[in-house]
Amino acid sequence: MAKAPRFDIDPDGPLEAAARTILYSLFTAAFDEAPAVLGGEDVRATHDMRVALRRLRTAMTTFQGCFRERKLARFARLLRRIRRRLGAVRDVDVHLAVLRAALGGATAAESPGIAYALGTLTSRRRRALARFAVELSQFDRSGFVQLIAPAADA
After folding, report:
1. What is the dihedral of CA 34, 143, 65, 17, to 10 degrees?
2. What is the CATH number of domain 15-148?
3. Which pLDDT value is given to residue 152?
4. Is the pLDDT of residue 133 over 60?
5. Is the full-model pTM beyond 0.90?
């Protein structure tokens, strides 16, 4: 999902309908990446989900006047927690990529230290991924969808 989803909106229609379509599309794009992220090996899916969640956050801010403020704010807080947990996974992915590249050109004296760091970071990634999985499992997807779904999808 490197590219943002396309939105099928009526430019002459009400703002609320466009907002619902956009939020729903962004939400779907973000959460469609979750299975690959939870699989643990697809670092591209982790990156793509983070990008999609940032797009969703921006759209929620843009269209906040179209929804019940307290409910949207509650979901915004919950999504922020998911983004933070996912960010921890992505940070480790970046560090692992740098260390793997360094290992290829490392001297015999440097290799054991880099290998140790790789092992440590791999463990850290597993823990971060587990925390992300817990946060994701606690998110009320159906409640959020009920709040933002376009009329035809509700």
Report:
1. 80
2. 1.40.20.10
3. 61
4. yes
5. no
